[in-house]
Structure formats: C-alpha cells, structure tokens
C-alpha cells in the first residue's frame, strides 16, 4: 500500500501535467506542494520557459534552488496555481493554513485563472472542521492587541489556541500571529463564517477558501482522480 507521502506525490505529479510553456504558475506551500514544485523544477531543467509566484519563503527557497524564475508582482492574471489543503468538502471549499501561508496563498488563488488543489483522499470531508479531532481553522491576526481579537473570535463560537508558545509565538512571513480555531459541530456555512471573520478588526486573513477552487486532484489507494474541472 502506498504511503501518505507517495499519495501526495502522485497527486502533485498529475498537476505538473497541467503546466505549459509561457505560463505564470502560482506555487503553493506545504508537504504536497513541495512535490509539485520539484516537478516544475524538472520542467525548467528540461528547457521549459515559465514564471512562478511563490506563496511563502519556504516555497521561494525551494523554487530558487531549482532555477525557477520568480516574481512577486504581476500586471496579468496567474495562469495556474497549485496548492494543498488541510480539508476539502464536496463543494471544493477548503480549510488551509496549517503551513502558515494562508494570507499569501489566498492572494495568489484570487489572482489565478485556475486554482487546483492537490491532496491525498483523507483530506476529503463531509463538513469542514467537523472531524475527530477537528482540523483547526487558522486565522492570521495582527500581534497588536491580539487577545482582543481572540475575544472577538470567541464571540463567533471559536475555541482558539495561539500557535506556538505565548512567549515565542509562531510568526507568519508577514510578521503576524496565527490563532488556530475550532468550532463545535464544525463549519456548516463556510461562506458566512468567512464574511464574519473578515469584519473583525485585527483579523488579517482566515483559512477558509470558498468559491476559489477549480479542481481537486486527489490520490488514494485506488489511484488519482479529479474533482471539478481542469
């Protein structure tokens, strides 16, 4: 039986087949996306010309080491972005951000003509955040008065944990902290919760991705399948 990492690689390799010469490609962040970036690196080594936009310093470092041409600003849409996910529901709504790059990942996803998620099939769920134990929803917040922001999150029913220790919290590439939030019964209305989170002063971004995913490439013991359209 294939290992989890082998399944991740299988999904990522399928996504590599979508890359074409001349594309601007968004490079996501995480364990599955590292395999995709490695595949793009092989294409570049074989002579394919393309440009990429990394969503984190980790992805940037990997891409640069592979000789992939990178930019951090564009005057056009990104052709294709490939990224991972912590959970995927039947409507291709996502929880993302375990790797801490949710803000940049969402900026890149929203700038993309096609946003494709790669994952192994254990990430498929009936309801986001309803597992046992639940997958936490990351919320990136400003460090300034972060406890007040956390109180407002609690007002929405969130049980939050500051990522990292309070004397040395985890900081995103943007210099912000992350509150990992869980909700009793999961998240029945991702769009509605997403709108409420964005109204909270102090919240920079959240890890709910709704209405952005073109397709999910999912690998399991039975092989690789595509949900949505590529």
Please provide a written account of the structure.
The protein has helices spanning 4-16, 31-45, 57-65, 102-110, 146-154, 190-198, and strands at 24-27, 51-54, 78-83, 87-88, 94-95, 112-120, 137-141, 158-162, 164-165, 168-169, 177-183, 203-206, 208-209, 215-220, 223-228. With 230 residues, the chain is α/β, with parallel strands linked by helices. The strands form 4 sheets. The chain has a 6-stranded mixed beta sheet with strand order 2-1-3-6-14-15. Helix 1 (4-16) crosses helix 2 (31-45). The two termini are 28 Å apart. The relative contact order is 0.17.
Please summarize what this structure is:
By secondary structure, this protein is of the alpha/beta class. Helix content is 28%, strand content 29%. The two termini are 28 Å apart.
**Unreliable runs:** none
Q: How would a crystallographer describe the biggest sheet?
A: 6 strands, mixed
Whole-number average pLDDT?
97
H-E string: HEHEHEEEHEEHEEEEHEEEE
Apparent shape: globular
Structure class: alpha/beta
**How much is the radius of gyration in Å?**
17 Å
Per DSSP E runs of 2 or more residues, the count of β-strands stands at: 15
- What portion of residues is helical? 25-40%
**Which percent band covers the strand fraction?**
25-35%
Instruction: Please give the alpha-carbon distance between the first and last residues.
Output: 28 Å
**Tally of alpha and pi helices:** 6
Order of strands side by side in the largest beta sheet?
A: 2-1-3-6-14-15
């Amino acid at each position: 039986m294939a290992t989890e990492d082998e399944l991740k690689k299988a999904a990522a390799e399928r996504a590599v087949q979508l890359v074409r010469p001349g594309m601007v490609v968004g490079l996501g962040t995480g364990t599955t996306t590292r395999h995709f970036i490695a595949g793009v690196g092989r294409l570049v080594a074989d002579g394919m010309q393309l440009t990429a936009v990394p969503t984190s310093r980790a992805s940037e470092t990997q891409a640069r080491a592979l000789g992939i041409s990178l930019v951090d600003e564009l005057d056009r849409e990104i052709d294709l972005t490939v990224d991972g996910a912590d959970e995927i529901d039947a409507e291709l709504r996502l929880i993302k951000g375990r790797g801490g790059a949710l803000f940049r990942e969402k900026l890149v996803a929203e700038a993309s003509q096609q946003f494709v998620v790669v994952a192994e099939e254990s990430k498929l769920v009936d309801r986001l955040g309803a597992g046992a134990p639940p997958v936490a929803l990351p919320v990136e917040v400003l460090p300034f008065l972060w406890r007040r922001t956390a109180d407002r999150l609690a007002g929405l029913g969130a049980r939050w944990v500051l990522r990292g220790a309070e004397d040395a919290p985890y900081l995103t590439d943007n210099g912000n902290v992350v509150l990992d939030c869980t909700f009793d019964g999961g998240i029945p209305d991702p769009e509605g919760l997403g709108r409420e989170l964005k109204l909270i002063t102090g919240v920079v971004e959240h890890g709910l991705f709704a209405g952005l995913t073109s397709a999910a490439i999912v690998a399991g013991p039975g092989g690789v399948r595509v949900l949505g359209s590529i």
